[in-house]
Structure formats: structure tokens, C-alpha cells
Design goal:
The complex is a heterodimer of chains A (256) and B (340). With 256 residues, chain A is of the alpha/beta class. Chain A folds into two domains: 223 residues, P-loop containing nucleotide triphosphate hydrolases (Rossmann fold), CATH 3.40.50; 30 residues, no CATH class. Chain A is 33% helix and 31% strand. Chain A has a six-stranded mixed beta sheet, sandwiched between helices. Chain A has a four-stranded antiparallel beta sheet with strand order 2-1-4-5, covered by helices on one side. Chain A has a two-stranded antiparallel sheet with strand order 11-12. In chain A, strand 7, helix 6 and strand 8 form a beta-alpha-beta unit. The N and C termini of chain A lie far apart (38 Å). The relative contact order of chain A is 0.17. The model of chain A has no long low-confidence stretch (mean pLDDT 93). Chain B is an all-alpha fold. In chain B, 78% of the residues lie in helices and 0% in strands. The two termini of chain B are 27 Å apart. Classes of the chains: A alpha/beta (256), B mainly alpha (340). Chains A and B meet through helix 2, strand 6 and helix 5 of A and helix 10, helix 11 and helix 14 of B.
Chain lengths: 256, 340
């Protein structure tokens, strides 16, 4: 399968193994959710793929090992949306989105028509036109999350790695962000998204990768990967199943 | 006014201010000259004494004020962008203190009297040495806090060394010379000083202007910057080296001049916005204007001797710094009680 290949990926920091020989494949146009309890190694996995951490093993895209890719080539290939919304200066929301074009434009002060189009499309995709000219530090949490997502979209990379993009957002904004990620997957991008909200992710993700103690505990569709056994063994919770409008909903219910 | 429309306006405003103050710097002094006489003298015609005053005394002084003001402002702007803190000043990495020690050492051992270039050369070398020491002390993959602590340690060491040199000065005249030099001045500076510091200052401009883009990307944090193709280790090296080169060579010529680097980015941000990439150039113009104005003021303020320029910039800068602290305190209070 052409797309992302992660093979025997291991990360050791300060003598502690955070990820041990993780391997999986994901195709372009897929929405892969990474789930697992706190400390399972989800962010470590995402950062290793993004090239932010040293790793052993292999990360390849369309058959090419990313270890040999230049920093700028990797930046054009992978868009990374980190946890939280770090914004050090009160720049405008549009200026923040413009930063997404950094892998394509050396100066960022003279944007090409292509850059401007990518920025406009990203702002439209998250429906942020109304507040694009406001200082980003003055936006609400939901608005900031959308702008940060727009920045990641403006990269126009074939792969988007999002680390808990809906954390601390209200339900409407959670749905809005996940819907945008789902649309991007349908447009052919590979979306890999960490989420603690398994129910929400189940509505948008094609597959789930369950991490536990730095190892893959399960991978597959929601029904295959998040079984009652996985819920109990990995998350330490029992579940209840509900039928709603013809769909089965599994909810974490109580601690084991 | 948006950042895009504010940029040409503020650049034009400070550009005109620099030109006017530069001309003012040629006119004002113990011998007052009218603009026409000064302009004639500038191009070598008119009275010989006027030509001498303008070409040998006031022109290098005005050029140095403009160049050093721009350099200090650029260093401040780059540093604030790199550490992502509006209260950062070029002194945080220790280079200005190290350069001051280099100069004081040259005065204390007497080589500054024997060879006029010894003082600036010693100051520039010490500033560069401090960069090496900073990088070794902080380690190859130092985070911001480690760098700032290492800079503080080096700055304190250099200040202690300056005090020691004052303490052990061979005679009262040497002690007085050191004390006055530390107060900062552009008096009696010549084209030799400009030629000596110029290449280093120009190199620092090239380095610091080249990192405008990466500094803008850094606004969204290290992870976004690194995954956008920014080499953080190289950016750190260029910032520290550029600031040390610019500020070190400026201190080498003028003595210690504080607060220009801290203040000027704040003067232009209301007009050009907070994007670090847009602040550099207007801040340089503002820095040049500010130091030219301060240098003129030292000649106009009535006193028994000429007020030292470093003293004047500190007298103006400290209240501004206090205002900044209060402004940020109030903003933090608002943010902590505001909507999420």
C-alpha cells in the first residue's frame, strides 16, 4: 500500500523507552485516529513521524524513507498541529495562517498568488473569515483552534498530524474541527489525529490505532479495534452499548 | 491603521526624523552653524574651521549615532523576537557587559593610550569570546531558560571584572577614564572608529535581517517552527552571534548605551503590528532617530560638563521600562480574568 509506512519505530529518551517497535501503514485519504490512555506514547509517535524526535526504525511516505528527506522537504510533506495553541505575539489570525506557507515561501513577506489562495482556502475551510483580521490572542478558545487548524491546512501537505485538536473545546467547536479534518481526508490527505474522545472520533475516523505503554494494542475499524476487551485492558473501563437511530454506540461506563 | 498600511507611514516618519536629526547633529554644538554653512562645509567648501568641525567632528559623530542606534534597535528587535518576550534587551546574553570589560581592560592596562584601536578591538574580541563561552556553558541543545541563565552568569562575571578593573586601577586618572567611558559617549569619535566597527556592525545587520522569516514562524512555538523547516539550533546561533557582533562593536565605540534596544521595537509595534518580521526595519530607523536625538540633547542640556549619552538613554529608558512592566502586568491580569 502506498502512503505512510511506519516500521519498527522506537523512541528512547533519557534511557526510557517511550515507543517500542511500532509498525503500521496508512493510506492517503484516510482518517486514522490514535487513541490510548495518558502516557501511552501517542504524542511521541506523532512527533517521531513529524521528525521532532530522534527515532530508530523507518518512516516512509510513498515508498521514500523520510530520514533522507531534507528539513524543508519534510515540512512540505507533513503538516503538524501541536497540542494547545502556542501564540507568543498578538499577530492577526490571518498572519498566523500565513505561517503555514513557510515551507513554500522563504520570506513570507512576499506571498505568491498560490500562497494567498492556499491561505484563503484554509480560512474558508474553517469558516474563520469573520475574525481573520483580529489579533489571534484576543480570540476565544474555539476560534483559536480553528485558526491553528487553518495554519496547518495552509501548508497543503499530503499528511496532517493533529495532536488533540479538539481538547478543551465545546461540543459545537469539537464537531466543527473534526468535520474539517474529515473533509480533508475525503480530499485525499492522510489525517492522523490523536483524540481522547473515542465517541467523537468514531464518527469521523476510518480506523483506530490503540496505543498502550508504547506498543500498538489494536488497529482497525472502531468495532474491531475498540472492543470491550481493549476498553478494559487498555483504558481500564467497562462499557455499555446503546442503539441510537440504527447505530450502536459504545460508551465508557465505569472503572474496572 | 493596519500593519500593512502602517509600515510605509512609520518608515516615512522615522526616515524624515533621521534625516532632520542628522542635519541637526551637524548644526548643533559649541560652535553653532546655520544649515547652509553646515551643508557647504559638509561638501568641503566654506571656512576651513567649519569644514573641520563638520567633516572631522560632527559627521562621524552623527553617522555613528545613526548606525549604533539602528544596530542596538535591530539587536533588541531580533532578541525580543527570538526569546518571544517584549521585555528582553540585548544585554541578556552578556555580550554588552563582556565588550565593556574588554574596553575597560584595555584602559586599565594602558594599551588604549598607546594605540587608539586597542580599546575597540579588545571590546569586540571580548564580545565574541562571550558568545563562545555562552554556547559552551549552555550546551549544544540549550533551551531558552538555560541560555538566559548562562547569559546572566556571563553578564554578572563581566560586570564583576569591570568592578575589579576599577578597583585595581593603577591611578585615579585611569579609574576616572574607565568610569566616564562606561557612561557612554559619542564625543570625539572619528571615522577610524566607524571604519573599525563598521564591518562588524554591517555583518550583524546581514545576519539579523536574514532571520526575519524564521522569527515570525517562531511566534507559533518551537514545534510549529521546526516542522515548518526552521533549524532552531542555527537560528539560535545566528541570533546570539548577530546580537553579540552588533552590540559588542557598538559598545566598543560608544561605551555602554542602554535601553535603545528595549524601547524601539515598542515604539513601532503600534503601527506595524507584532509580527517580528515587520518590526526590524522600522525599529532600526526609530533607533537611529532616538540616538541622534539623545546625542543632540547631550549638547543642549545645560550642565557643567557634557551629559553622557548612556546616562541620558537610561534616564529616559527606565521610566519607559517601568511603564512596560505595568502595562504587561495589567494585560496579564485582564487575560487571567477574561473569557476563555
Amino acid at each position: 500500500m502506498m502512503g505512510l509506512l511506519v516500521k519498527d519505530l522506537g523512541v528512547t529518551l533519557g534511557g526510557k523507552t517511550l515507543l517500542g517497535d511500532v509498525g503500521f501503514e496508512a493510506r492517503a485519504g484516510e482518517f486514522l485516529a490514535i487513541v490510548g490512555p495518558n502516557g501511552a506514547g501517542k504524542t511521541t509517535l506523532l512527533k517521531a513521524i513529524a521528525g521532532l524526535l530522534s527515532y530508530r526504525g523507518q518512516v516512509a511516505w510513498q515508498g521514500e524513507d523520510l530520514a533522507s528527506a531534507t528539513v524543508s522537504a519534510r515540512a512540505r510533506l507533513i503538516s503538524y498541529l501541536p497540542q494547545g495553541h502556542t501564540i507568543h505575539w498578538p499577530i492577526t489570525a490571518r498572519e498566523a495562517v500565513t505561517i503555514g506557507r513557510a515551507p513554500h515561501s522563504s520570506s513570507l513577506t512576499r506571498l505568491s498568488p498560490e500562497d494567498n489562495m492556499a491561505i484563503d482556502q484554509a480560512i474558508d475551510a474553517v469558516d474563520a473569515g469573520a475574525f481573520a483580521h483580529r489579533p489571534v490572542t484576543e480570540l476565544s478558545g474555539g476560534e483559536k483552534a480553528r485558526i491553528m487548524l487553518a495554519r496547518a491546512l495552509a501548508v497543503n501537505a499530503p499528511m496532517l498530524l493533529a495532536d488533540e485538536p479538539v481538547a478543551a473545546l465545546d461540543p459545537a467547536h469539537q464537531l466543527s474541527v473534526m468535520r474539517v479534518l474529515g473533509e480533508q481526508a475525503r480530499h485525499g490527505r492522510l489525517i492522523i489525529c490523536i483524540s481522547h474522545d473515542l465517541l467523537l472520533a468514531s464518527r469521523f475516523a476510518d480506523r483506530f490505532l490503540v496505543l498502550d505503554k508504547g506498543q500498538i494494542a489494536a488497529i482497525g475499524s472502531y468495532a474491531d479495534a475498540l472492543t470491550q476487551e481493549i476498553y478494559a485492558r487498555v483504558f481500564g473501563v467497562t462499557t455499555r452499548r446503546f442503539e441510537s437511530e440504527g447505530e450502536t454506540v459504545t460508551m465508557p461506563w465505569a472503572s474496572v | 491603521m493596519t500593519a500593512r498600511t502602517g509600515m510605509p507611514c512609520i518608515a516615512a516618519f522615522f526616515g524624515i526624523a533621521v534625516a532632520a536629526l542628522f542635519l541637526g547633529s551637524l548644526l548643533i554644538g559649541p560652535v553653532a552653524l546655520d544649515p547652509l554653512t553646515a551643508l557647504k562645509a559638509l561638501f568641503g567648501s566654506g571656512d576651513d574651521i567649519d569644514v573641520l568641525i563638520v567633516q572631522e567632528l560632527r559627521l562621524p559623530r552623527a553617522l555613528l549615532a545613526a548606525v549604533i542606534g539602528a544596530t542596538l534597535a535591530l539587536s533588541g528587535s531580533a532578541l525580543q523576537g527570538y526569546v518571544r518576550n517584549p521585555l528582553a534587551a540585548p544585554s541578556v546574553f552578556g555580550a554588552p557587559s563582556a565588550a565593556a570589560f574588554g574596553a575597560v581592560f584595555a584602559i586599565a592596562v594602558g594599551v588604549a593610550d598607546v594605540q587608539s584601536f586597542a580599546l575597540p578591538v579588545s571590546a569586540i574580541l571580548m564580545a565574541l569570546l562571550s558568545v563562545g563561552a555562552l554556547l559552551i556553558l549552555a550546551g549544544p541543545s540549550a533551551n531558552m531558560l538555560t541560555l538566559l541563565l548562562a547569559g546572566l552568569a556571563l553578564s554578572s562575571l563581566a560586570s564583576a571584572a569591570v568592578s575589579l578593573a576599577l578597583n585595581l586601577a593603577p591611578n585615579p586618572y585611569a579609574a576616572l577614564e574607565i568610569a566616564f567611558w562606561l557612561l557612554g559617549s559619542l564625543e570625539d569619535r572619528s571615522f577610524h572608529h566607524l571604519l573599525l566597527a563598521g564591518p562588524f556592525i554591517f555583518a550583524s545587520w546581514l545576519l539579523l535581517l536574514a532571520i526575519r522569516g524564521p522569527l515570525r514562524i517562531l511566534t507559533l512555538g518551537d514545534d510549529v517552527a521546526r516542522t515548518s523547516g526552521v533549524n532552531i539550533a542555527r537560528l539560535r546561533l545566528i541570533t546570539i552571534f548577530g546580537v553579540a557582533l552588533g552590540v559588542g562593536s557598538s559598545v566598543a565605540v560608544s561605551g555602554v548605551i542602554g535601553f535603545i534596544g528595549l524601547i524601539t521595537p515598542h515604539l513601532v509595534r503600534p503601527f506595524v503590528g507584532y509580527d517580528p518580521a515587520r518590526v526590524h526595519l522600522p525599529a532600526m530607523l526609530a533607533g537611529a532617530a532616538l540616538l541622534l536625538a539623545a546625542d543632540i540633547a547631550t549638547r543642549l542640556i545645560p550642565s557643567t560638563g557634557e551629559i553622557r549619552i548612556g546616562v541620558l538613554t537610561s534616564l529616559i529608558g527606565v521610566p519607559f521600562f517601568i511603564w512596560l512592566v505595568v502595562k504587561h502586568r495589567n494585560r496579564n491580569l485582564l487575560q487571567s480574568s477574561g473569557p476563555a
